[in-house]
Design brief:
Keywords: NADP, Oxidoreductase
Order of helices and strands: EEEHEHEHEHEHEHEHHEHHH
InterPro entries: AKR, Aldo/ket_reductase_CS, NAD(P)_OxRdtase_dom_sf, NADP_OxRdtase_dom
Radius of gyration: 18 Å
Mean pLDDT: 95
Protein name: Aldo/keto reductase
Low-confidence stretches: none
Organism: Bariatricus massiliensis
Number of strands: 10
Largest sheet: 8 strands, parallel
Oligomer: single chain
Family: Belongs to the aldo/keto reductase family.
Strand content: 5-15%
Number of helices: 11
């Protein structure tokens, strides 16, 4: 990969850019300017979700850009309350309306379990996936995938699906690489994407990343993003300024050495968001932290 315009090929043959732009909280204050700036900076792959509340703004920013819809790779996700066969079909139509488009490049299930008390989550996932498969077969979605699904959740989908997931989004960044999930997806031929690729700035002051930033004459954020690119993972950074947006794109002019890649990969845990696909896990850990 030599630029953000370079693409991976998904397991269904669809091309996907190697870096995207995350839109979570990217339209606060009911303003599309951040999204318009990202388009101006050169981003064409945008990741959104019904839960983010940014689909309307992204759709308008794309419209105002004057660029053909085909130049963009638009991904969205249905929220926990939108899961299930009928609800998924309805949620998809509403997403298209907000984005002002008649198709999605990729559509994802946002979380595998709506809540800890949902005992029928496996069937719920399968019903949701069946609806997505039908939309994909109709040509209304080019690729379908999953977000926050770990191996224990993916096994259920893979055992019953007609269309294999093309991609999985996980929280991935130095200090929180979820290696079991990464290895599983790599073995199954599923492309990985990283949300919170710079740990929502929580990891940028980690001594190792600061040291490597100085060594390679780049920013700690660029070290995080370059690390993921070299791992073959699509990072989805977000920023509000043109300067930072361009900086996040400029991660192709240097290579992190093999030794330094291992040093980053073996960092102690840092920067975890506190969110986990199995709700009871996050609840227990966060309660323990409060007790400390």
């Amino acid at each position: 990969m030599n630029s953000i315009n370079d693409c991976y090929t998904l397991n269904n043959g669809i091309k996907i850019p190697c870096i995207g732009f995350g839109t979570y909280k990217a339209a606060e204050g009911n303003n599309i300017q951040i999204l318009k700036t990202a388009i101006e900076a050169g981003y064409r792959y945008f990741d959104t979700a019904s839960f983010y509340g940014t689909e309307d703004y992204l759709g308008e920013a794309v419209r105002q850009s004057g660029l053909p819809r085909e130049e963009f790779f638009l991904v969205s996700k249905m929220w926990k309350e939108e899961m299930g066969y009928d609800r998924t079909k309805k949620a998809f139509e509403e997403t298209l309306q907000r984005l002002q488009t008649d198709y999605l490049d990729m559509y994802l299930i946002h979380w595998p379990r709506p809540e800890a008390s949902c005992s029928e989550w496996k069937q719920l996932d399968l019903d949701t996936w069946r609806a997505m498969e039908e939309l994909c077969q109709e040509g209304r979605i080019k690729a379908i995938g999953l977000s926050n699904f770990l191996p224990q959740h993916l096994e259920n989908i893979l055992a019953h699906c007609k269309i294999k997931p093309a991609a999985v989004q996980l929280e991935l960044h130095p200090g929180y690489m979820q290696e079991a999930g990464v290895r599983y997806c790599e073995e199954k031929g599923i492309l990985l994407q990283a949300w919170s690729p710079i740990g929502r700035q929580r990891v940028l002051n980690e001594p190792l990343l600061v040291e490597l930033a100085q060594k390679y004459q780049v920013s700690p954020a660029q070290i995080c993003l370059r690390f993921l690119v070299q791992r073959g993972i699509v990072p989805l950074p977000k920023s509000s300024s043109m300067e930072r947006m361009k900086q996040n794109m400029e991660v192709f002019g240097f290579d992190i050495s093999t030794e330094d890649m291992y040093r980053i990969a073996t960092m102690p845990q840092a920067g975890w968001s506190g969110e986990h696909p199995d709700p009871e896990v996050a609840q227990k850990i966060n309660k323990r932290k409060i007790g400390e």
